[in-house]
Amino acid sequence: MRVSKEQAAKNRDRIIEVASREFRDKGFDGIGVADLMKSAGLTHGGFYGHFASKDDLIAEACAASMDQSAEKWGKLADRSPEEAFAALINAYLLKEHRDHRATGCTMAALAPDIARQSGRVRERFTHGTRALLDILAKIIPGVSAEAKREKALATMAGLVGTLVLSRAVDDPAFADEILAAGQAAFGKQD
């Protein structure tokens, strides 16, 4: 039974949405194509009608999740610069963000996996990271124009590192301490 072009496009979008969540939650090697398709409510056989390979899906899923982050960050950046920066830090370093990898930051969930991927995946990730960096650089308070990009890069690396470490430790109190230290360090900009 053939599906309409409109339904095929909806199915493709659904696969990307599910893959984006599942990859962030389980990593690229933590879930196979058959299970992704099942989670999307579709048959395994239909996968190759939408994507050339799992790597093709990984690239699309990374791009989609990075675009979602840029949209969220963009909405936060629409506030005044002082409010936007604090809102972004507070939203990023929340316990809920730490505890829900599947709907959280692609950088914190997948950067080590992405470093081992092919060119297209890394290209999509790089594009998304630059878009987020541009948003962050616009809202960094209290620094000269020349220093904004450098400060944004350091802040982004610190935010991602804080989230990664707080997810990795097995002691909830220590995980909370790591988040609090990140809040204190990155919430204050000169």
Automatic annotation (TrEMBL):
Record-level Gene Ontology MF annotations: DNA binding
The Swiss-Prot or TrEMBL record marks DNA binding at 32-51
Listed A to Z, the keywords are: DNA-binding, Transcription, Transcription regulation
* Coiled coil feature spans: none
Question: Which Pfam families does this entry report, sorted A to Z?
Answer: TetR_N
Cross-referenced InterPro entries: Homeodomain-like_sf (IPR009057), HTH_TetR (IPR001647), Tet_transcr_reg_TetR-rel_C_sf (IPR036271)
Ranges for domain HTH tetR-type come to 9-69
The name on file for this protein is: TetR/AcrR family transcriptional regulator
